[in-house]
Amino acid sequence: MNNQIKFHIALNVSEIGATVDFYKGLFNAEPVKLKNDYAKFELDEPGLVISFIQAPDKVSSHFGHLGLRVANETQLAKRKEEVEKKLKIALEETNTNCCYAQQDKFWVNDPDGYEWEVYHFKKDVDKNDKRPQAVACC
User: Fold this and answer.
1) In whole angstroms, how far apart are CA 119 and each of 1, 8, 10, 38?
2) Do you know which Pfam families this protein is assigned to (predicted)?
3) Is the pLDDT of residue 32 over 80?
4) pTM surpassing 0.90?
5) I need a surface site. Which of 75, 80, 85, 104 has the fewest CB within 10 A?
């Protein structure tokens, strides 16, 4: 373990196997710990520790969304290419104004409906798009 500070998220999930398969595709990584009701991924880029606890009665995807911000359009295209090999892209947006920022992004949904956006921040803007495809935004 290094001294890097990492963000930690713990999510309740319905079924650990389907969850692990999804996140292996999203993160392009294997879990560092895997039990029959628990999994943990530790990522260096982005600096993230994310745990999944099988607890179907506690699952709720209505808390908002999660995201991975990449540094540039090249990284976004590379990440999209990697993810598309393993997962279904739910939505792709270009030059969308979301969270008062212009972004290019794509969305994937995990087995419990948790929405993930993978995006490239372009610039701050003064409005959010009201288009139907931007519903998942802020």
Assistant:
1) 28, 20, 22, 28
2) Glyoxalase
3) yes
4) no
5) 85
